[in-house]
Amino acid sequence: MSLALLAAACASEPVSLPTAPPPNHGTYKVGVPYQIDGTWYYPREDPNYDETGVASWYGPNFYDKATANGEIYHAGDLTAAHRTLPMPVNVRVTNLDNGRSIIVRVNDRGPFAKGRIIDLSEHAAELLGYKTAGTARVRVQFVSRADLDGGRPPPDLTPPEVASAVPAAPTSRVAATALDAVPGTAVAPPVTARPLPSPLPPVTSADVAVATQPTGVVTQTAPVATRLYVQAGAFTTYQNAARLVQRLGNGLQISSITHNGQTVYRVRSGPYDDIGDADSALARVTAAGSNDARIVVDN
C-alpha cells in the first residue's frame, strides 16, 4: 500500500479488533498474469513458497471492501494480500525483528508498493508487533490451502474450460551467451546457505488441522540479526550475473551462495540497516531498468 495510506492507517480512530478467523465466503482462485507499473506478476500454486522481505499493513480505505477472491476485508481479521499466491491459502508470517509468528489467510492481491512482500490486516500487524512502526522485516512461508465456505476443500486445479480461456502473458525467448568477466567486478567465494531459523514449533499429524488455521495464536522464537539487501537477480552462471551488473551499474555487486549443492550468483546492493535506505536503493535500481528488483532480508 502507499505511504499515504499507511500514514492514514496509523492515524485512524481505534477500531474493535476481534481475534476470530475470517469467514470463508470467498472463492478459491489462482488468477491470471497481470501487470502493475510495468511489472508482470504470475500467480501460481507454490506449496514450497518461503521468502523474506518487508511487510506493511492495510489502511482504513480498504475497510469493508471486497478482496480479490470475493471475501470482505475487516481490520480485525487475520488476513493478508500477496501478489502471486493462490487465494485463499494460509501462510505463516514471522517478524524477524522480534521473533513473533502467526498464521494468516491470504485472500487479496498486493502490496504493489515497491519493496513490500506482503500486506497484513491491521490486527495481524498488531499481533506481530509492527502496527505502530508500519513495516517489519518478515519471513513468509506457505502452510496450506484454506477451506471454502462450509469446510469444503478447494479444488485441486482450475477447471480446464477456465484455464483454456486465460490469455497468456507476453513472453519471449531469452538467449544466453557466455561473456568474459566484467573488468573490476569481483565475486565473493561461494558460501553455504544458512537458512533463517524455522518459526514453526514441532506438531503432530493430529495437530495440523488446528495449528495451520488463523487462530490469532502468536508463537515466539529468538529474533535473529538480519540485514537488508536489494536483489536485482540471481543466476546459476557468473557470466549472466556479470552482464546484469554491467547493464545496471548503481553499485551492484555479485555474491555467491551454495543452495541445494548448486552455486547461485546473486546481483545485490547493500547491506542496509534501515528500511528507508533500502527503499531508496531499490528506487535507484528500478530506475536503472530492473523492474524485478526486490528487497530481501538475510543474515
Put the structure in a nutshell.
By secondary structure, the chain is an alpha+beta fold.
Task: Walk me through what this model shows.
- The protein is an alpha+beta fold.
- It has a domain at 3-151: RlpA-like domain (Barwin-like endoglucanases), CATH 2.40.40.
- The protein is 16% helix and 27% strand.
- The protein is built from six helices and 13 strands.
- It has helices at residues 3-10, 122-128, 160-163, 208-211, 238-248, 275-287, and strands at residues 34-36, 39-41, 50-57, 79-81, 89-95, 100-108, 118-120, 136-145, 219-220, 227-235, 253-259, 262-272, 294-298.
- The chain has a six-stranded mixed barrel. It has a four-stranded antiparallel sheet with strand order 11-12-10-13. A two-stranded antiparallel sheet has the order 1-2.
- Mean pLDDT is 77; it is low at 1-16, 18-22, 150-182, 189-193 and 200-211.
Keywords, please?
single chain; 299 residues; alpha+beta; Barwin-like endoglucanases; six-stranded mixed barrel; four-stranded antiparallel sheet; 16% helix; 27% strand; globular; disordered N terminus
Helices and strands in order:
Layout: H1 3-10, E1 34-36, E2 39-41, E3 50-57, E4 79-81, E5 89-95, E6 100-108, E7 118-120, H2 122-128, E8 136-145, H3 160-163, H4 208-211, E9 219-220, E10 227-235, H5 238-248, E11 253-259, E12 262-272, H6 275-287, E13 294-298
Parallel strand pairs: 3-7, 4-6
Antiparallel strand pairs: 1-2, 3-8, 4-7, 5-6, 5-8, 6-9, 10-12, 10-13, 11-12
Uncertain spans, ≥5 residues at pLDDT below 50? 1-16, 18-22, 150-182, 189-193, 200-211
Helix content: 10-25%
Supply the CATH class of one domain.
Mainly Beta
Q: Based on the structure given, which CATH architecture of one domain is correct?
A: Beta Barrel
The strands making up the biggest β-sheet line up spatially as 3-7-4-6-5-8
